[in-house]
Design goal:
This protein is α+β, with helices and mostly antiparallel strands and 128 residues long. It is built from two helices and ten strands; from the N terminus they run H-E-E-E-H-E-E-E-E-E-E-E.
Length: 128
């Protein structure tokens, strides 16, 4: 009887832990929308796990997720201008554009502050 009780407790702990991990794990997605048109071709959602800047959230995500990479150029007073995400570079009038909570950011990734629950999205789209 004691072994059955211990096994039941162990199963309950594992189920609770798995449920907690599912609820707290960041959701990251890549959206492909087809041909290069005036619409967005690709978008990346970056998880926000603490009060931070967009660039710090991206750096933390890149450190934890080996399939994610980005690069850019730093401009004095403006911060980092993202020029490439996962090998897709700004070109042919398409640029990586930062949206926070579905609103075009008025600040660059180095200056834009975010908190857990914010949706940080980079859209690869025709220059606006």
């Amino acid at each position: 009887m004691r072994a059955h009780h211990t096994l039941s407790i162990l199963i309950a702990i594992l189920l609770f832990g798995a449920g907690f991990a599912y609820v707290t794990s960041p959701v990251v997605s890549t959206i492909e929308t087809g041909e290069y048109t005036s619409e967005t071709k690709t978008a990346h959602i970056i998880p926000v796990l603490s009060n931070t800047t967009v660039i710090a959230a991206m750096e933390a995500y890149a450190a934890a997720e080996p399939t994610f990479s980005f690069s850019g150029r730093d401009f004095s007073g403006l911060g980092l201008f993202v020029e490439e995400i996962n090998g897709l570079k700004n070109r042919d009038g398409f640029y990586w554009t930062l949206f926070i909570n579905n609103t075009l950011s008025e600040k660059g990734a180095s200056l834009a502050s975010v908190v857990p629950g914010d949706i940080v999205e980079w859209r690869y789209q025709k220059g606006i």
